[in-house]
From TrEMBL:
Cofactor binding mode and count: Binds 1 divalent metal cation per subunit.
Residue numbers binding substrate: 6, 64, 140-143, 173-175, 195-196
Entry protein name: Ribulose-phosphate 3-epimerase
Its job: Catalyzes the reversible epimerization of D-ribulose 5-phosphate to D-xylulose 5-phosphate.
Catalytic activity: D-ribulose 5-phosphate = D-xylulose 5-phosphate
GO CC annotations, alphabetized: cytoplasm
Name of the gene encoding the protein in the UniProt record: rpe
GO biological process, one term: pentose catabolic process
Keywords from the named record: Carbohydrate metabolism, Cobalt, Isomerase, Manganese, Metal-binding, Zinc
Needed cofactors: Zn(2+); Fe(2+); Co(2+); a divalent metal cation
Pathway the protein contributes to: Carbohydrate degradation
Length: 217
């Protein structure tokens, strides 16, 4: 099981410091939220920021593209150093093609579903992906309340993985705290994104440990 801090809630004027802070506390992945002001109301980073981060961390970079027609930017994020590119099924009419495109650059491919999107919308591409991201809030902002009803989809995806022999990881993103991570694990998730719970704390190291403590129970 993997902890993936989201730098959406980091101090953008001190990104290097805030990334080193989580890396020193043995996390597994760095989650980078890319927002375009269209697919979601907020705007964050582009590929240049990913390229700027790349040299100062060894953590795999999980780039969560909350952008319309992500196919337009896959090459730019691959060249910037993304290890995994996450695309929303709701953001493109050509999800199969985008996932193939991501893999053509030697980058891991993930498909993401919003809280209002059923698992059936991604069933045809589950054999292609390295990871499925189940949003547990509506994307766009950090610090929102966890939506427990999304966990049924995590359970369904774990069951499909088992019955079909697939190997994708299942990631959850949004509202993950020490109070909600246990239910995500019990539903079958493997990768846990946490933004505000870690970065809005006085002591982020304690928060990372609190998440690990629940996972080890
Ligand atoms: C939401 C982003 C999340 C966000 C999670 O649109 O995709 O990755 O950083 O933030 P928290 O953990 O605060 O809900
Ligand atoms: Zn995210």
């Amino acid at each position: 099981m993997k902890i993936a801090p989201s730098i959406l809630s980091a101090d953008f004027a001190n990104l290097q410091r805030d990334i080193e802070l989580v890396e020193e506390n043995q996390v597994d992945v760095l989650h980078v939220d890319i927002m375009d002001g269209h697919f979601v109301p907020n705007i964050t980073f582009g590929p240049n920021v990913v390229a700027a981060i790349r040299p100062f961390t060894k953590l795999p970079l999980d780039c969560h593209l909350m952008i319309e027609q992500p196919e337009r930017y896959v090459e730019a994020f691959a060249n910037a150093g993304a290890d995994l590119i996450n695309v929303h099924v709701e953001a493109t009419p050509h999800i199969h093609r985008v996932l193939q495109l991501i893999k053509s650059f030697g980058v891991k491919a993930a498909v993401t579903i919003n809280p209002g999107t059923p698992v059936s919308a991604i069933e045809p591409v589950l054999s292609l992906v390295d990871m499925v991201l189940v949003m547990t809030v509506n994307p766009g902002f950090g610090g929102q309340k966890f939506l427990p009803e999304c966990l049924e989809k995590v359970t369904a995806l774990a069951e499909i993985r088992r019955s079909k022999g697939y190997t994708y990881e299942i990631e959850v993103d949004g509202g993950v705290t020490d109070q909600t991570i246990g239910a995500c694990r019990d539903a079958g998730a493997d990768v846990f994104v946490a933004g505000s719970y870690i970065y809005d704390a006085e002591n982020p190291a304690e928060r990372i440990q609190a998440l690990k403590d629940v996972l080890e129970q």
